[in-house]
Amino acid sequence: MSLASHLPALQVVLPLVAAPLAVLVRHTGAAFLLVTLASWAAFAIAVLLWQQIGSHGTISYALGSWAPPLGIEYRVDRLSAFVLVLVAGIAAVVLPYSRRSIEAEIPREQHYLFYAMFALCLTGLLGIAITGDAFNIFVFLEIASLSTYVLIALGRDRRALMASYQYLIMGTIGATFIVIGVGLLYLKTGTLNLVDMSVRLQEMSNHRPVLAALGFLTVGISLKLALFPLHQWLPNAYAYAPSVVSAFLAATATKVSVYVLLRFYFSVFGESLVFHRLPLPEIMLALSLAAMFAASAIAIFQDDLKRLFAYSSVAQIGYITLGLSFDSVSGLTATVVHLFNHGITKAALFLLIGCAVTVVGGSSLSRLAGLGKVMPLTAFGIVLGGLSLIGVPGTAGFVSKWYLVLAALEKGHWWLALAIVASSLLAVAYVWRFVEIAYFRAPPAGLPVRREAPLSLLVPAWLLIAATIYFGLDTSVTVGSAAGAAAELLGMAK
Amino acid sequence: MTGAELILAGLATPLAGALGIALNHRAPNHREGVTLVTAAALFLCVFALLPEVLAGGRPEISMFEVLPGLALAFRIEPLGMLFALVASGLWIVNSLYSIGYMRANNEAHQTRFYVCFALALFSAVGIAFAANVFTLFVFYELLTLITYPLVTHHGGDKARNGGRVYLGLLVGTSVLFLLPALIFTWHLAGTTDFTPGGILAGKLEGFALAGLLALYMFGIGKAALMPFHRWLPAAMVAPTPVSALLHAVAVVKAGVFSVVKVVVYVFGLDALAGGTDWLVGVAGFTILAASVVALNADNLKRRLAYSTVSQLSYVVLAAALLAPLSVIGAALHIAAHALGKITLFFAAGAIYTAAHKTEVSQLDGIGRRMPWTMGAFAIGALSVIGLPPAAGFVSKWYMLSGAMAASHWLAVAVIAASTLLNAGYFLPILWRAFFRPARAEDKHHPHGEAPLPMVIALSLTAAGTVALFFCPDVPLALARGMLGDLP
């Protein structure tokens, strides 16, 4: 077999190998180089896989040539390819940024550990998206989670330890629920392969253990994806983690959890069980609305920009799960496209906050006063990212909102369409808090008149800002992939 | 150049201008030179399109699809032509005025000011040329955002609070009402193209039709229908050139232009028949209530702002009457009110620059010190009241004829009453300026006219106001052309 046919395995193996190597070399520069190259390779592989899916359809790869359902199957379809591109792409952009950023935020002797953990985290997230095996999902989830706990704890603020611990407790509860759910499914079906499982589940959708498994999985995954009100771990984790970690996690970790939810709902249980037998759509709808309004409202009153955007993430996750609750192509398109659009927007925002932190020394709003004068590029980038959160036309956020409102109107839910647009007004309020502080207040005393962050930080951040604008104007790639994935999940693919 | 190329040139010119202004930030004379050249070039681009449009051509170009089936596309019909001509033509004069005003008042951040101005004109041209509601919406939102730094130009608490009201109401109404209206239109019709005769015929009726119309009318907050009009007086914290070109011409006319466009090309006059009485009522109420507020405002710019709120609703009212004559009047009023009101704002800014006066009650005897300024002010006032020999007379004539033809006596009464109110808030200013002696304390501050560029600018627009009365051919032909589009 040629190398090309082993791309699914390489997707996970490359970053997995980079992690122990980074520990072995124990040298900042070398570890940085190793992990960055691995992430670029992973991104290239993800794009290649995405192209292959486009032309040849779903790829099934038997790991170690053990045929499924006995062996572990790696399965790449439209949705997983899209998530792989997002995760690997963000890693590829964020890593070059990390070099300068962690110099300011992490003690030098821990740098190689940071890179090792980052590589493991990337491995876990990519693995979740590519595997077609229920238990394998759990294993990768744990790899990603454990490395995430370490990455958060590396934050220089001592509260980072507490945040990490909090996330550890919550994350472990979530993982336990997930493993119970998977166990119940294994008990009933005798298989861990997702495709196999879905075939066998069709005859037993009435069985109590199956419904219980659905419940356990829903709660467990909702904890990991920070569905309101299971989001308590998220604001502290994002606020106190090193900036580059916040950016990476905000763009990928919760998004991959949403992927897992979609996978179990649509590919394993099937929409008829999830959406027609249980009141899950109603519950999802209510919780999503609560997230959109409550978390946005809380965001308005934050005094720290990282926390502000962290609560904004909880609200935006509400949009993602809202689209899912519609159980329609437009709704799922909104969900999948918003995974991507919100991912790049939030990553850009956290990277820019990282730029500001290197100069003004903190992310509290009082320190960011007058940022428009001191760091015009950074401040303007944050404004552009904020516009995408609001959903201004010409930004990526607008595209997501369009499909979400369209999905609501298709169902005839007028009030819901109004609720969606009304909640984006709350986003105007929290984004404008930053605008007014950055442009109408004088910078605090002791700051230089004008000093931008170094280019190695600004370029990756602005690359992502440029992407949020680009994907707001040319949506053929994002909407095309998302609509394809949505149709495939609902079994309507050509 | 072909029509499509001219459209692209018209869009690219202000963008390139903005870049040129930014690059010349160290050389103010070059920077202002770039502004003037850009404004002239933009006007030429627009003007070059006129013959084709008058001859019945509809130049168009589709840029790219933002969402499947939804393209960013431009297509010039007569009404858009008229709006683009007015906005780009007055930009030249306004640039001249800005140079005098910004330098005489030693304003800070002048480069930012001119860059934002060029980008605002880019957005206005985009709105004028939009081929579908989606494109219009994109540029509409862009115009709001790009004018925010202009409104809050002075910084500080007052500007910040004004900016909050400005942005809150404009973004609030557009996101809350206009966006759902746009998506609902797309959901119903599968297109958002402006089409003669409308795209919603037979797809909606009764309550849903009225609901969608209400979403559009209140969603286009830039038309300043009450109760969403407060952003316009709030925007008066901006430097006067901004109030003049943007909040008497580009932004507010973008609003009423969108209203007329949606009524004529999305709904279609026939489809709306009988469903717009409530809109006539709301517009009529806005006309009268805003005039009453203007009557009591002592601050000159505030009085002018409320006068604008009232005049904008003339256009909405005329469109809501659905009579061909009144719709022609609505189109004409976009041009006529623009010329008259920009003259009034120019005069207000000249008074502020030369005499540092902002209140009506301070203007005793100022006509003798600033005869050109106050002469122009008189012409502008005549136009807004609707008296000959000023352009406002022509548009009001058509609106009244339309209202009578439609036997809509409420509308006739509103227009008549409002004319009296307009006279009531403008004539006392003229009386003070020309017939009352200057107050004692003013004698210690001798001053003459404002700097020459400002006087030239306001004389030009005043002359234009009169000229439009004597030869309204081009705007009239365009307004008729718009209705000629109808089947």
Account of the 3D structure:
The complex is a heterodimer of chains A (494) and B (487). By secondary structure, chain A is mostly helical. Chain A folds into two domains: 1-278, no CATH class; 286-485, no CATH class. Chain A contains 20 helices and two strands. In chain A, strands 1-2 form a two-stranded antiparallel sheet. The relative contact order of chain A is 0.09. Chain B is mainly alpha-helical and 487 residues long. Chain B has a domain at 289-487. Chain B has 19 helices and two strands. Chain B has a two-stranded antiparallel sheet with strand order 1-2. The radius of gyration of chain B is 21 Å and the shape is globular. The two termini of chain B are 30 Å apart. The A-B interface holds A 387, 390-394, 399, 401-402, 405-406, 409-410, 417-418, 421-422, 424-425, 428, 432, 436, 439-440, 472-476, 479, 483 and B 64-68, 72, 137-138, 141-142, 145, 152, 155-157, 159-160, 164, 167-168, 171-172, 175-176, 179-180, 183-184, 186-187.
Short structural summary:
The complex is a heterodimer of chains A (494) and B (487). Chain A has 494 residues and is mainly alpha-helical.
The helix count of chain A comes to 20
For the report, how would you describe the main beta sheet of chain B? 2 strands, antiparallel
> Total number of helical segments of chain B?
19
Strand neighbour order, sheet with most strands of chain B: 1-2
Beta content of chain A: under 5%
Q: How do the helices and strands line up, and which of them pair or pack?
A:
The complex is a heterodimer of chains A (494) and B (487).
Chain A: H1 7-25, H2 28-56, E1 59-62, E2 73-76, H3 78-105, H4 111-130, H5 134-153, H6 159-189, H7 194-201, H8 208-225, H9 233-240, H10 243-269, H11 271-277, H12 280-300, H13 305-325, H14 329-360, H15 371-374, H16 376-390, H17 396-410, H18 414-440, H19 455-473, H20 476-489
Chain B: H1 3-23, H2 28-54, E1 60-67, E2 70-75, H3 78-104, H4 110-129, H5 133-151, H6 156-189, H7 206-219, H8 231-234, H9 240-267, H10 269-272, H11 277-296, H12 300-321, H13 324-355, H14 366-369, H15 371-385, H16 391-405, H17 409-435, H18 452-470, H19 473-484
Antiparallel strand pairs in B: 1-2
Helix pairs in contact in B: 1-2, 1-4, 2-3, 3-4, 3-9, 3-13, 3-18, 3-19, 4-5, 4-9, 5-6, 5-9, 6-7, 9-12, 9-13, 11-12, 11-17, 12-13, 12-17, 13-15, 13-16, 13-18, 13-19, 15-17, 15-18, 16-17, 16-18
